[in-house]
Amino acid sequence: MKLLKSIPKHTREARVLYLTCLACIVLLLGLLSYNVWLNSDIYTPSLLGSAADTATHQNGPNNGASSSMQNEPDLSGLKYSFIMPTYAGDIPLAIEFLQSFMCLCTDYREIKIHVIVSDSSEYKMFQTALDNLVSCGERFSIFPVPQGNVGGPRPNIEIINLFDILPPVFHMLTNGNITANDTSALLRERGKYQYQTIKKMAAAAALDYDWALWMDSESIVVQPFSARRMFDGFARAPTIWRSSLANTPIMHSLMNNSASVLRLPAGAFGPDLWNLESQEWIIEKPVLDDLIQYVEKAHDQDFWATWAANGGPFEVTLYNLYVHWRKLETTDPMYGKYRIMDTEMEMSKFGVLSPSTQEIKATMSGTGLLERSYKLLKVPGTPLKLSNMLQAYGMHIYRLDMVEGMVPEEIDRLLLDTPINMLCSAVPPLHKWWKERNVVIGETILWPGAFNHF
């Protein structure tokens, strides 16, 4: 009391006022930091939920989506589709995929598969090839066939001639004649990558669906799964993966051309941004419609005229860049629910990037790290770490070009325990590989606890 009395009253009041202001500033800074963290486009699962938590929820984790995701969206009745462009040389691969889908997907009849062919000749060729589909017996490859698939009808397939959905502007932009019987002039003048993009994106713009998967015909179903459950999981927490690994002129050109179509500055998200990382090319119809409308308004001309005038970038790089930009630019919940994840950061966190795998990464050029992460799987222990990461983000589509030089049992666990539902793009003969190793599911269990998700 003597000490307090010795301090002038106005000094004590000044100190109280100072401490009060300081406390308010600290509180405001804390609230501001929390708000910035919530609205950041880079999230970490360790902050908002662990892999152990999410592994039991295969519809996907809630680790970084906006607060609106706390309220479960009503996904009942949503229309899900596959969009598969193909051509004469790949038709046998497409049929092989359809056979695996017919025998291993528990709800295969609920998914509309749109097959985009080049002309009327390929249309008839694909119709004939469908006769090679056979009713499923008790087993397919190494798996027991789900009871509801045994003896079931064909998948729900629609064959579409590219000519029937081709944007009219290409008749003016193409020197050669384009007809229902021959679209080769478009292929010749645009090249195979732009031709493939036109097939995918023109179909995506024309068809009726809520969510669709862009896929290559060289895909295969890995094991029994529910396609609706896979789509539901993505729709609850849609994720776009990005890296800073654009290291070739082609990669830089694709990203800069995508930015030009969107009227964004080149390198707006960094000079080495690359967003064709994941093979889960799942798109949302309202987002695609919004993208097309935005481009037409920004350039005051047809979307496809702008796309063609700016190098014709990949459909995936364009779509992903648009979502990334809109998430940062707007408060629209349609974009707020998306997560933008950094591949290198997450791989480091889950231990996928180690000194040994970093050496392999250093040799990779012209590709995304996640897209060809199978190259890292030669390092023992890496498949399990990658599986943990894929589980944490509810990823069930993967690219695996080869299995040579890897520990077979580790690849089994990556595919079956994650679980990976589908392999896409240049897949190895997986089911033949399993058969040659005498792997049998349902009679021989490879390890305790395996396949509990069936």
Using brief descriptors, characterize the structure shown:
454 residues, alpha/beta, 3 domains, five-stranded mixed sheet, 46% helix, globular, disordered N terminus, disordered C terminus
Describe this structure in words.
The protein has 454 residues and is of the alpha/beta class. It has 3 domains: 75-221, no CATH class; 238-337; 344-437, no CATH class. 46% of the residues lie in helices and 9% in strands. The protein contains 20 helices and 12 strands. A 5-stranded mixed beta sheet has the order 5-2-1-6-9, with helices on both faces. Helix 5 links the parallel strand 1 (80-85) and strand 2 (112-117). The longest helix is centred in the first third of the chain and has 31 residues, at 9-39. The termini are far apart.
* Percentage of residues in helical conformation: 40-55%
Oligomer: single chain
Identify the overall geometry.
globular
Spatial strand arrangement across the major sheet: 5-2-1-6-9
DSSP strand count: 12
Mean pLDDT: 87
Based on secondary structure, the structural category is alpha/beta
Transmembrane segments: 16-37
Keywords: Membrane, Transmembrane, Transmembrane helix
